[in-house]
Design a protein that fits this description.
Elements lengths: L1 H21 L10 H32 L2 H30 L6 H35 L1
Helix pairs in contact: 1-2, 1-4, 2-3, 3-4
Length: 138
């Protein structure tokens, strides 16, 4: 039970931290490839730590007998794995095409950055909802 709580808190903290840390990065002009590499590496770290926290939560919930929560945590692990593979690859591709004079890759990268943050908001909402549901069932 305690492991499930620790990993759930870790998921909440990581998601909130990287959401709040990613918002100020929208101020970057994204007009140089270095900006794109930095933002991409920022989300890469987020997806890695979230994956391991979700795996820990899934195992903890499964051992606790909370199958629905274990499945939810597995879903989070799968989501961040897919995002890390496909979304970050797309970010890298668009980021490599950024030149100071071409506005299209810059616009696309900013949109991708915003989308990643919206996914974080949605994940945070799901985590908070799940935490409330868990507290009601205990």
């Amino acid at each position: 039970m305690y492991g499930a709580f620790i990993f759930t808190v870790a998921l909440l903290v990581f998601t909130a931290y990287f959401l709040l840390g990613g918002l100020p990065l929208l101020v970057l002009k994204h007009d140089v490839p270095l900006d794109a590499r930095f933002v991409r590496s920022f989300f890469n770290v987020y997806y890695k730590v979230t994956f391991w926290a979700a795996v820990g939560a899934a195992l903890s919930y499964a051992l606790w007998g909370r199958v629905a929560f274990a499945i939810g945590a597995v879903g989070i692990a799968i989501l961040v794995t897919v995002l890390r593979k496909h979304f970050l690859d797309a970010m890298e591709e668009v980021g490599a095409r950024i030149e100071g004079s071409d506005a299209e890759p810059i616009r696309r990268f900013r949109r991708m950055h915003g989308t990643a943050l919206l996914i974080n908001v949605a994940l945070l909402a799901v985590l908070v909802w799940g935490t409330i549901r868990l507290s009601q069932s205990v």
